[in-house]
Amino acid sequence: MSEESDFDRRKFLQATGAAALTASVAGCTDGGEGSPTEGSGNGGTDTGTDGQGGDGEFTGLDSYPYSPGETDVESARQVMEEAGYGPDNRFELDWLQYTSPAWKEMANTIRSRLESAYIDMSIAEADFSGLLNRTEKGDMQAFTLGWIADYPAPQNFLQLVDPENTIYDGEGPAPNGARLFWTEDSETDTDVRNFMTEQFDQIQNNPQQSEEAQQARDEAAVKMEEGLWESAALLPMYHQVSQSFWYDRLDYSPPGGMGGSRSKENISVKGLEGKDRLDKISATFSALDPIASGNTASGGKVMNLFDAPMNYHNGTTEVRNLLVEDYSVSDDLTEYEFTLKEGIQFHGDYGEVTADDMVYSIRRLVESSNSTNTYFPNSVLNIERETDDDGNVVPGSTGVEATGDYTFTVTLQNSFPFALSVLAYSAFSVVPEGIVGDIEGYEGEMSWEEFSTNPVGCGPFQFANWESGNGGEFNADKFDDYHGQEPAIEGIDAAIITDTNAQYNYFLNGNADVSAIPTSKYDPNKVSIEETVDGIDRGTYGPMENDETVNMAQTPTINTYYVAFNMQEVPKPVREAMAYVINRPQFVDSVFKGRGAPAYHLTPTQVFPGGASAYESHWQGE
């Protein structure tokens, strides 16, 4: 994710102190005499089945194949030796990570283990935007990122490993998968790649809400997890438990499993004693235009400044109407007609929100060259549209139409059962018609650069100030004419701080009302859970170094952190060796101090077919 500068537009998780993200690049032996041969290792299938059917094609695996819960250096060394590596033929791997003490500790542990398996790993750090830029260009071999759910269904996670959706080659529509570069000539078995593509097609081609369609999607989702095991293209690491800490002066309702970037402060903040503005901490970000924002640092601000048609109420999985008061859906789930609430006001002098504003906003999301969130309308919803010979959307062809002053339709090319959930994503937020001239038919009242740094929405708070970069700040004021629940505070002030220790000290000094606590400063022995309400543990934390005991809440969020590989660059035995030396329970307990759960699937337990019990029994082979 999710996830902290300009996270890729499509929701990779930000690297907060509790779970900073990592990536890596490396040199590798490429061709020539004595180079390793892909697929010459054991394939990670020593689990009682070879994953092959009678015709030799991959059919699945019985359980997670890489010594789960162990530090299996011996198997790592063996798979490398079988591939031709040894003391005189070592693999060089450069680990590039987002700045984080916790992930650096894990990286050092992995490096020491891989040395015995003929892999030399160097460790470097980069800011988050730099990390993302390099992975999109393929300028890496291994990397780690995370994903937080856009909508609570397996396919939202599994699209990350659909091979066709992982090739960032700069041609055609921008993909939204992990940066695996899983091409036909990648370093993996062709039948496994085909298997993954077929299973994802099975998910996509059964969108109906019938039991039969649901069963088909579920079976394919589980099979994709097995194909992912076999390929070792991406190694799920852990599912994060989200925590919030706040002082008694704040009356706070912590967000649910969809995460803080899906919650609005007019809902989560019930009151504040002694002052009228909320003080927070923010990571860096680079744009506040909904169509060009995707990381949690900017996402939370967009949620406060803008409104979309639907909303995940306080970050839970409950989807509620927000801009709309009613809607209807065609029998084949391809046409949605929405009726907007009347009287919704934009900030400033931009007047009432109408259907024309909504049409313009969705057109920008699909057609604007500034949009970095086209994945949602095009690949997820698959909104009706025409494309030219180069794959670009023909201006004005987007399947959204105003049918009245307050009614509009959205037409999809194919059935999709989670459309309402996707329309809760902030990329679909409404902006005033014509405010930016970046689609055909509009000259624009301001440039995109001006709008993205001085935005106009209709959310519960209106933009006031933004001084970008570390040491800067973001400010938003209460919007008195907001159509929804009135904020209990007059505004929000967020200090932009990138260093996790500095963030903690800022909170420790009482400068922030609510904050996370970086893993390096977190002590699980100071946690006291007093109650669990709607799946959220609530209690206290402390005393801290300032002798204060603060309130805390924790909830499993629907996300997964992972290690992944550029499949064009990293041979399968190297990927398998990494899998063997990653001891998930140990890392969760010792590195992340218990703030998560070991991940043996890319799909989190909350949305895994059959739930938590099926998740556990599947990877354990029971």
TrEMBL record:
This protein's record includes keyword S-adenosyl-L-methionine: no
Keyword Signal attached: yes
Solute-binding protein family domain sequence ranges: 64-161, 319-615
Keywords: Signal, Transport
Biased composition (Gly residues): 29-57
CDD domains per record: PBP2_NikA_DppA_OppA_like
Annotated spans, Disordered: 26-73
Pfam families: SBP_bac_5 (PF00496)
Family according to the record: Belongs to the bacterial solute-binding protein 5 family.
Protein's recorded name: ABC transporter substrate-binding protein
Taxonomic source organism: Halolamina salina
